[in-house]
């Protein structure tokens, strides 16, 4: 699959995390490799949760231009994986309580096109799931890390972020990437 990632040392996700000040972000313009539709895909990220403000981790989502695709966000006390089927209408959300603050956490979000569901898992815990049978909008929003739709920006640290297209991650895959909380270098991920 296509991967957007930050480099890190084997098994250590924290050493090369980027610090965002609320105005900084990484952006890649939209392209076919980052567009989804009604297919399997997964998004994983290591984040250092520092507060309960509305924050964006990663995704392709823009409210102002009706280019809402998918996003991994925090809204107050909830961590959410949000998707839109039409770019502007009703959103589907898989959500979990925000994990402990001032600590690193591993987020995995995915769309299973066969099961017609979206999922969100934190730290190898029990995934939240929500029915979603209409696929994900294929739009022109850029893929952003640390910023989405001009409203939510990240203040704090984000470690490696990876996107897989045309696949989900099995429970064994997610456990391997979690690696007991130490993380796993994507170069060592052989699944």
Characterise the protein shown here.
The model is unreliable at 1-12 (pLDDT under 50). The chain starts with 17 loop residues before the first strand and ends in a 13-residue tail after the last helix. It has one helix at 171-178, and strands at residues 18-21, 26-28, 41-49, 55-62, 67-75, 78-84, 91-97, 103-112, 117-122, 128-131, 143-145, 147-148, 152-153, 155-165. The chain is globular, with a radius of gyration of 15 Å. Strand 9 (117-122) and strand 10 form a beta hairpin. Helices cover 4% and strands 45% of the residues. The chain has a six-stranded antiparallel beta sheet, with no helix packed on it. The chain is mainly beta and 191 residues long. 39% of the residues are buried.
Counting DSSP E segments of at least 2 residues, the number of strands comes to 14
- Radius of gyration (CA) equals 15 Å
Q: How many strands, what sense, and barrel or not for the largest sheet?
A: 6 strands, antiparallel
What's the helix-strand series? EEEEEEEEEEEEEEH
Helix/strand class = mainly beta
Beta fraction of the residues?
35-45%
Distance between the termini: 11 Å
Give the rounded overall mean pLDDT. Answer: 87
- Lateral arrangement of strands in the main beta sheet: 1-14-3-8-9-10
Note the total helix count. 1
Percent helix, as a range, is under 10%
Shape: globular
Unreliable runs: 1-12
């Amino acid at each position: 699959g296509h991967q957007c990632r930050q480099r890190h040392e084997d098994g250590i996700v924290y050493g090369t995390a980027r610090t965002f000040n609320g105005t900084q972000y990484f952006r890649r313009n939209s392209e076919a490799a980052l567009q989804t539709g009604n297919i399997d895909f997964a998004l994983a990220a290591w984040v250092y949760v520092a507060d309960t403000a509305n924050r964006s981790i990663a995704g392709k989502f823009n409210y102002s231009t009706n280019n809402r695709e998918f996003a991994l966000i925090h809204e107050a006390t909830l961590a959410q994986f949000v998707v839109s089927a039409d770019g502007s209408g009703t959103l589907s959300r898989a959500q979990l309580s925000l994990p402990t603050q001032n600590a690193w956490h591993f987020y995995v979000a995915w769309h299973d096109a066969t099961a017609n569901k979206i999922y969100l898992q934190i730290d190898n815990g029990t995934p939240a799931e929500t029915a979603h049978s209409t696929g994900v909008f294929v739009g022109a929003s850029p893929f952003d890390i640390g910023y989405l739709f001009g409203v939510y920006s990240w203040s704090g640290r984000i470690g490696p972020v990876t996107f897989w297209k045309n696949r989900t991650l099995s429970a064994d895959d997610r456990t391997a990437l979690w690696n007991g909380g130490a993380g796993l270098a994507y170069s060592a991920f052989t699944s």
